[in-house]
Amino acid sequence: MSELTNSKTDNWFASWFDTPYYHILYKERNYREAQIFMDNLTHYLNLPEKAKVLDLACGKGRHSIYLNKLGFDVLGVDLSENSIAEANKNANDTLHFRVHDMREPFEEKFDAIFNLFTSFGYFEHEEDHLKTLVAIKESLSEYGFAVIDFMNVNQVIANLVADEVKHVDGIDFHIKRSVIDGHIVKEIEFTHNDESFHFVEKVRAFTLEDFQQLMNEAGIYLLDVFGDYKLKKFHKKDSERLIMIFK
Fold first, then answer.
1. Helix, strand, coil shares of the chain as percentages rounded to 5?
2. By C-alpha distance, which of 64, 75, 120, 123 is closest to 100?
3. H-assigned helices in 26-125
4. For residue 37, which phi and psi values (nearest 5 degrees)?
5. Is 40 in contact with 231 (CB distance < 8 Å)?
6. Nearest-CA neighbor of 228 among 214, 216, 238, 217?
7. Which residues contact 127 (CB under 8 A, 6 or more apart)?
8. In sequence order, which residues have a C-beta less than 8 Å from that of residue 232 and are 6 or more positions away?
């Protein structure tokens, strides 16, 4: 039996997100809820028809595909080559995918940039989070808006399930959650085909105040904050999400 671990690397996401097991574990996520969120978001932003939309950290492109069906010209980008290869099977004249590091800005400008479903806070070094925000700002058109949809860490920490086993496709995923050094850490262990695997997800526990400080440094204007996918008001203690609209 061999063990595959990436817990000691700075970019745990580069290996974990590139495995098929990541997609197996999270395949039951509520995509209808995600589509309702995107309906609400694009309506709220009043995006023009055929607006240029960037889906930043798009994974296999499911949300990019839906945004494209709503009539937008969409580019989905992700660091995972395997995910982008899968997403590219759905590409068309107004839907494109490419491998991209979110710390780097784009030459082209976008009417909206979406960073959805806690796809921020992965980097080990604080300056990389700032670089990402600056890159987003620099990639917006003059009248463009950006959206970061993050977990509400206050609510997550208060309701943290320390130990859990998820049974998916014949695999028992043993999950341990903890808060360590300002990060929410999830350890995932499982065995498949007589091989043992060990992965660690590590996300910076950014509060709204943390984001506001970073955005001030990046010269970003925070316009609105919501607490769930129906765009209800954000409540620090019990909102499910922290959704920030900025430019």
1. 30, 35, 35
2. 75
3. 31-45, 62-69, 81-87
4. -60, -45
5. yes
6. 238
7. none
8. 226, 239
Residue 158 half-sphere exposure, CB side, CA atoms within 13 Å?
Answer: 10
Residue among 83, 84, 135 nearest 110 (CA) = 135
Residue type, 107: E
Residue 76 one-letter amino acid: G
- E-strand stretches of 16-132: 52-56, 73-78, 95-99, 110-115
Question: Residue 187 in contact with residue 200, Cβ under 8 Å?
Answer: yes
In the block, tokens 């001030």 appear at 216
DSSP single-letter state for residue 233:
B
Global pTM value = 0.87
Calculate ∠ Cα 156-100-225, nearest 5°: 35
**DSSP-derived 3-state class of residue 105:** coil
Cβ-contact 154, 207 below 8 angstroms: yes
Amino acid at 176: K
Question: For the segment 120-137, what is each residue's pLDDT rounded down to a tens digit?
Answer: 999 988 899 999 999 999
Instruction: Give tens-digit pLDDT for 207-244.
Output: 999 999 999 999 999 999 999 999 999 999 999 999 99
The first and second tokens of residue 216, run together, are: 């001030």
